[in-house]
């Protein structure tokens, strides 16, 4: 039987009593999904047996998996992106002015951004390298009622170019822009399972608010981006070998703390396809 141990009153929960794999039965998957919507990010410790193949198979239990067009993947599993921060390797930061150490919601530049992501620690540094998540439903509710009313009807453009445009050739950028043109999403999306309003703009992928003067748009977006950094909305995970995190990418943002010095940190992630935000 699974046991659920919340980390805070808002976000984060450790789940015990389950061995993750592609063979987790449907009733357990349904229980995990329910807990995910409630706690927004779930942590599973000591999943030492979870191979890359089983990681992918476990992800598929929640839906179709994305292939990331910019971040390199595991050689045998294209759905498994590799986030490698070690001296001399090509980290996301070497491809982009923004790395995982910026608050973000995965692939919000897609018309149908991801439902959730599953991250597994492959190699951890001696110290540092925690990941933080922010509850963007709480962030919305933390705004004054006046600002909530002002931002609710707004829409914003999300575009891969801001984060990944500088790291690719002009030809590839043009091809990617055809495949992934800038998309418009509501600034406040509705969670499809709970109906809750969620603040849905993030610094690496949101470029501007539709119809607003760029100076007003930048000022408002900067204020909204800053909401994720409020400690009261957050939980923080210190990774150990065998730890796996599963998060609801619709209601959270996350931040990988870049404090590992010369250490090596290698993570693998599958990303589950989601719905069009409304
Ligand atoms: C990510 O941004 O998906 C990766 C987070 C991490 O490496 O902790």
From TrEMBL:
Keywords: Dioxygenase, Iron, Metal-binding, Oxidoreductase. It comes from the Bacteria. The keyword Metal-binding applies. The keyword Coiled coil does not apply. One of its GO terms (molecular function) is dioxygenase activity. Residues 4-271 form the TauD/TfdA-like domain. Belongs to the TfdA dioxygenase family. This is Taurine dioxygenase. It comes from Rhodococcus rhodochrous J3.
